[in-house]
Predict the structure of Gag-Pol polyprotein.
Amino acid sequence: MPTTRAMEAQFQTLLEKLTEMNANMGEMKSELTASMNANMGGMKSELTASMNANMGELNNKLTANKEELKSDLKGIGDKLTTMDKKFEEMEGRIESVENKFEDMESKLEAKIFEKVEDVSISFRSDLEKLKQKVMTGQGDEFKFQAPYSKPSIKLSTYDGKSSWQVYKTQFSIVADANQWDSQTKACQLAASLRADAADILQTLPETQRLDFDALVNALELRFGEKCVKDYSRLQLKSRQQKVSKRFKNWRRTSRGFLTWRFLTVRLKKQTGSRPLNAGPAVEKGICREAAGHAKALKLIAPPGRRCRKN
């Protein structure tokens, strides 16, 4: 039993505390509600004031932009009006120019028509006169003549022995008279070459054998005056060299023969025998004498027959 009373007392105390807590919670709730209502009202008023201020500023900006836009549109409208006026002026000028061209065209057509009429009348008159002359047979210009054909001039041949300049002049005269073109001149010139001159064709490539300028240049280099002089000089020099070589050979042979002949005769006179059988002293003396005669005559001893040394 004592335990139950204590528990009831505690329970009673707990109930009182809960009741007190409920009362405190109600007060706190009312205070919180009032505070929240007060804060919401303040925030609402501040938000409304801020929105009103922003709306007013926005309205002011829109109004300013609207005025500025109106002024810009007005400027564009003025420019468009000015451009329309200029276009109208240009159209007026174009119409004026077109009118002038039409006037000039009509005047030109009238003048051309007059000229055509004059030419037509003159042509008819000349045609009538021409018909009358043809019918009556008057005038030498209406006498028919037989067609005339130029005779073809024959071309001589060239073998390289005569003057190239003279033949070139003759060829040019014949080519002009026959009215040959470049290829025909090349063919005719190639066909007229003979002997040494025809060998020039072998020195030219096949592509240049029908080239008149290339063929003429080749003949000029071979048979021209300068080339002929150089060729004659070369031939004369070659002949001189051959003659000089022959003369030297003859002189060397003659010197040897005369020197050996002199030595043989002297030995035969003094010893009565051939040079190979003579004594050394006699051969030496005769050699000295022969050497003196050879020096005086500008001769030399023959090869293989020199005097013996001491």
Q: What stands out?
A: Residues 139-149, 273-278, 299-310 have pLDDT under 50 and may be disordered. Residues 2-136 form the longest helix (135 residues). Residues 114 and 120 are 10 Å apart (CA to CA).
